[in-house]
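queue> holo job accepted (uracil)
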Amino acid sequence: MIKIKQIRVDKILSSSGIGSRKEVKKYIRNGLVHVDGKVIDNPGLLIDPMVQKICFQGQEVFYQQFYYYMLNKPAGFISATEDKYDQTVMDLLKPKDQKNLFPVGRLDKDTEGLLLLTNDGELTHNLLSPKKKVPKTYYAKIQGQVTKSDKIAFQSGVLLDDGYHTLPSELKIITSGDISEIELTICEGKFHQVKRMFISRGQKVIYLKRISMGSLKLDENLDLGEYRPLTEKEIKELKVSI
Ligand code: URA
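queue> job finished
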């Protein structure tokens, strides 16, 4: 038996980027939406988007349930959907792409790099679940020298300021000097974790950028503030990697 999945028409239209739920309701009241050729007036009307044809201002709307974008987050933006004081990563998206997306986890306001934006709650849950231990790799510049003893300490875990002992992590030293460059892979996501791990070693992170999460790698062609949809291959690989 074919299972029919019925969804509210205002939800379909807003997640297709037509407008916010409020705007969509207004469009429906103004007679701009047709379902199977008939104008509708009920935003809560349940329809099956795989079978029924929805048109907005005469144009067919193609429903896609989930969206996945990779953003190269610049410093100065909060990883949230809204904030009272600061701009959020959602402000970097074109209005048509904002849909009902949210960032997967948080990067600090001054951290750059890979941020996944999606409306797929299950994938988000899996990526953030401590049980899944999804690896995240960061590139960082550190004030002062980073040495083999830091590498060994991170391998066995370090004690953070709140008494938490971190899981084993992998430190790669790219250069060591007055300012060192490193890559650190951690499998958890405590608040300010990378910065606090270096503080525990008496060092200071002066630049931080996430370069990968699970199988997903930051596309180096994306300038800061740019984003693009994930490819089918990236989505598939990400789902099987967790
Ligand atoms: N660790 C940090 O300290 N900050 C981030 O933004 C991400 C990981």
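queue> The first helix runs from residue 9 to 15.
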